[in-house]
Amino acid sequence: MTSSNLKRKIAYPTALLIGLAGWWFLEPSHELSGADQRGDGSILSVEENTDTARRLNRRQADLRARIDYKESLMVGFVGGEYTLKQVAREFARVNADDETTLHMMRCGYPGETDEEKAAHNVLDFLKARQLPEAELAAILQRGRTQLDSAFPR
């Protein structure tokens, strides 16, 4: 396995893990005091634990749906059905619904607008796909060309 293949196989799970860890530590509404304790050390009731579990399960389902949608956009981009600008616009729209994801995108990618930052995020998503190296290189080149055209410096 070449170094670039290994990097691609690690990139997506690593990005997902960082995103989930970022959400966990930045999300103000969750309870970090333990699975069954309040911050003051008292034990949560079964109802409180159940409510917390429901909220976390809902959040996990929302994250999964967001990732699945982004994956469907990537299939269209790889196949040439969508341009980088179209996919970036959707990434930015979807990310705008989640303060933590939006914050991480704004801090983690270059660009003057959320859409430009999302375009860089799209190219990172692309790098994580399991594509033959030559195909990936060609699609990345198309993406970079579209990036330069859509967001000239």
Order of helices and strands: HHHHHH
Structural Rg: 18 Å
User: How would a textbook summarize the main sheet?
Assistant: none
Distance between the termini: 37 Å
Number of domains: 1
| Outline type | elongated
What is the β-strand count?
A: 0
| Helix content bin | over 70%
State the low-pLDDT regions, or none: 30-35
> Pairing-aware structural class of the strands and helices?
mainly alpha
Proportion of strand residues? under 5%
Tally of separate helices: 6
**Mean pLDDT rating:** 82
Tell me the quaternary state: single chain
Which secondary structure elements does this structure contain, and how are they paired or packed?
Blueprint: H1 3-26, H2 46-78, H3 84-96, H4 99-108, H5 114-127, H6 133-150
Helix pairs in contact: 2-3, 3-5, 4-5, 5-6
Give the tags.
153 residues; mainly alpha; 73% helix; elongated
Can you walk me through this structure?
By secondary structure, the chain is an all-alpha fold. The protein has one domain (3-19, 46-150). It is 73% helix and 0% strand. It contains 6 helices and no strands. It has helices at residues 3-26, 46-78, 84-96, 99-108, 114-127, 133-150. Helix 4 packs across helix 5. The longest helix is centred in the middle third of the chain and has 33 residues, at 46-78. It starts with a helix and ends with a helix.
Task: Quickly describe the structure.
Helices cover 73% and strands 0% of the residues. The chain is mainly α and 153 residues long.
